[in-house]
C-alpha cells in the first residue's frame, strides 16, 4: 500500500490550489482523479478578477490553450423582466475565458503534485493517526495510506458521502444544462456574460458566446424538463432580444449542490478528512465558483501544513482559517453590501447609478420577485428569510457546518 502525506480527491481548481500549498511545504501529495486527464468540465469559464490573480500569482501566465474564444470577458450583464438591462464591467479590466479542460490540467500539473488519473475514490477509513483510502482503477481496487485526505471532488462529492452518508438528502439539488447553437443573429454583446433574473424562465438562465457558438443555459429543480425549459428560453431570447439561433449542435448538464452558501451552511469535513471547493458548499452569486474553489482549496492545504507544524487538530485549523472565505462568499448574497459596498467584482453600484429612478425601482421589484421563486426549493424559506434579514440589516444567519 502506498503511503503519502496527503491524498487529494479530484483534479479541479480547488485541488490544484490545495496541492500547490502542500507541495510547496514539502509534503508528499497524490491527487486522485476519476477521469482521464485533461478532462472536460461543464462550466462557462468566466473567471473573476480575484480568481485570475490567484492563478497568475500561484501558477504563472495562462497558456493560450487554456482559453476559449473570445479569450476574455469584460463583465456581466443582468437582464430583468421589465426589459431593463445592466452591464457591469469587472474591476481592473477584462478576465480570461477559461477552457476548463486545459486550464485545470495546466494548474494541477503546475502544482507539482503526483496525479493518478482514471482513479476513482471509492471510500475511506479514518483510524485517527492515518486514513486508508480505497480507489478503483481499471476495475481493480487500489489502497493508499495518508495522514490527511482533502475532498476536492466537486458538488456530488463521494468523500462527503464517505463521512456523512446522509448529506446528499439534506441539501437542495439543482440541475443546470446548456445547449450550444450556431448563430444566425445575436445582438447580445459577446464581451459580457448574460444572466436573466426572470421567474418565468427558470431559476438560473444564462447565455454567452463561445468558440463561434452561442450557449443557452438553464437551471432548475431536479426533475423538471430540460428540453422544455431550454425551448422556452430560446423563444424568449428571440422575441425579446432578437436572438436568432440554429437548432443546438450539442448539449450537456449536471447536478449542482445549489444553496449551501446562500444559507451560510458548509461541510468542512471530520477527523483527518477535509472538504473544500464546491464540495464544501462554496459558490458565489450567479454560480461563480472558481475563485472560491481556488481560495478555499489553498486554505485547506495551508490548514494541513499548519496543523502538522503546530501539532494541532486539522479541523480546528481549517475552521479558523476558512472563516474569511466563508464571510466573503456570504457577503456576495447580501443586498445591502451589493448596493453600497463591493462584495462582487463587477461594478453593480455604478451600473445601478446609470439607471433612472424608475428603472432602479423596477430592478429592485424584479429581483425580489425572482428571489421568491426559490421558496419552492428545499431550504427555500430559509433562503428568502436569509436574504430578507440581510436586507433589513439584521446580519447573517450564523455560519453552520457539519
Ligand atoms: C454550467 C456551469 C457553469 C459555470 N460557470 C462558471 C463560471 O463562469 N465561472 C465560475 O467561476 N464558475 C462557474 N461554474 C462553477 C465552477 O465550475 C465550480 O464551482 C468549480 O469548478 C468548482 O471547483 P472544484 O475544484 O471545487 O470542483 P470541480 O471543478 O467540480 O472538480 C472536481 C473534480 O473531482 C473529480 N471527481 C469527482 N468525483 C471523484 C471521485 N470519486 N474520484 C476521483 N475524482 C473525482 C471530478 O472529475 C473533477 O475533476 C459553473 C458551473 C456550471 C455547472
| Count of alpha/pi helices | 12
Number of strands: 19
Sum up the overall morphology in one term: globular
Indicate the percent of residues in helices: 25-40%
Radius of gyration (CA) equals 21 Å
Mean pLDDT: 91
Descriptors for this entry?
402 residues, alpha/beta, 8-stranded mixed beta sheet
Describe this structure in words.
The chain is an alpha/beta fold and 402 residues long. The protein is built from 12 helices and 19 strands. It has helices spanning 13-24, 49-59, 100-111, 158-163, 167-170, 226-241, 290-310, 314-331, 335-340, 348-353, 357-372, 380-391, and strands at 2-9, 29-32, 67-73, 75-79, 85-89, 95-98, 114-116, 120-126, 131-137, 140-151, 174-185, 192-196, 204-210, 213-221, 244-256, 265-266, 269-270, 273-275, 400-401. The strands form 4 sheets. Strands 1, 2, 7, 8, 9, 10, 17 and 18 form an 8-stranded mixed sheet that branches. Helix 1 (13-24) packs parallel to helix 7 (290-310) and helix 7 runs antiparallel to helix 8 (314-331). The longest helix has 21 residues, at 290-310. The protein is globular and about 65 Å long.
Amino acid at each position: 500500500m502506498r503511503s503519502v502525506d496527503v491524498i487529494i480527491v479530484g483534479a479541479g481548481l480547488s485541488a490544484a490550489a490545495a496541492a500547490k500549498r502542500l507541495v510547496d511545504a514539502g509534503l508528499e501529495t497524490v491527487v486522485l482523479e476519476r477521469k482521464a486527464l485533461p478532462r472536460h468540465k461543464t462550466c462557462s469559464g468566466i473567471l473573476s478578477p480575484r480568481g485570475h490573480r490567484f492563478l497568475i500569482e500561484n501558477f504563472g501566465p495562462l497558456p493560450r490553450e487554456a482559453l476559449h474564444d473570445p479569450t476574455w470577458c469584460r463583465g456581466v450583464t443582468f437582464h430583468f423582466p421589465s426589459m431593463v438591462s445592466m452591464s457591469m464591467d469587472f474591476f481592473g479590466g477584462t478576465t480570461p475565458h477559461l477552457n476548463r479542460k486545459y486550464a485545470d490540467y495546466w494548474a494541477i500539473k503546475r502544482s507539482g503534485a503526483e496525479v493518478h488519473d482514471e482513479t476513482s475514490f471509492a471510500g475511506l477509513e479514518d483510524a485517527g493517526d492515518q486514513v486508508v483510502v480505497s480507489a478503483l482503477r481499471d476495475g481493480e481496487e487500489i489502497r493508499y495510506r495518508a495522514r490527511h485526505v482533502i475532498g476536492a471532488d466537486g458538488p456530488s462529492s463521494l468523500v462527503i458521502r464517505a463521512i456523512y452518508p446522509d448529506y446528499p438528502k439534506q441539501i437542495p439539488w439543482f440541475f443546470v444544462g446548456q445547449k450550444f447553437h450556431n448563430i444566425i443573429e445575436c445582438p447580445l454583446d459577446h464581451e459580457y456574460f448574460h444572466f436573466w433574473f426572470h421567474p418565468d424562465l427558470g431559476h438560473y438562465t444564462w447565455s454567452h458566446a463561445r468558440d463561434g457558438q452561442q450557449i443557452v443555459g438553464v437551471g432548475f429543480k431536479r426533475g423538471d424538463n430540460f428540453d422544455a425549459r431550454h425551448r422556452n428560453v430560446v423563444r424568449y431570447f428571440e422575441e425579446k432580444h432578437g436572438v436568432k439561433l440554429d437548432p443546438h449542435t450539442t448539449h450537456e448538464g449536471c447536478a449542482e449542490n445549489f444553496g449551501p452558501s446562500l444559507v451560510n451552511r458548509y461541510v468542512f469535513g471530520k477527523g483527518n478528512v477535509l472538504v473544500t471547493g464546491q464540495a464544501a458548499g462554496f459558490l458565489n452569486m450567479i454560480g461563480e465558483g472558481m475563485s472560491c474553489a481556488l481560495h478555499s482549496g489553498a486554505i485547506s492545504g495551508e490548514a494541513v501544513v499548519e496543523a502538522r507544524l503546530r501539532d494541532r487538530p486539522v479541523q480546528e485549523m481549517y475552521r479558523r482559517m476558512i472563516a474569511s472565505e466563508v464571510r466573503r462568499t456570504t457577503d456576495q448574497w447580501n443586498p445591502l453590501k451589493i448596493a453600497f459596498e463591493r462584495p462582487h467584482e463587477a461594478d453593480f453600484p455604478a451600473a445601478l447609478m446609470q439607471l433612472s429612478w424608475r428603472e432602479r425601482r423596477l430592478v429592485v421589484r424584479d429581483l425580489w420577485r425572482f428571489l421568491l421563486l426559490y421558496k419552492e426549493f428545499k431550504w427555500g424559506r430559509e433562503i428568502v428569510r436569509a436574504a430578507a434579514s440581510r436586507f433589513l440589516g439584521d446580519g447573517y444567519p450564523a455560519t453552520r457546518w457539519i
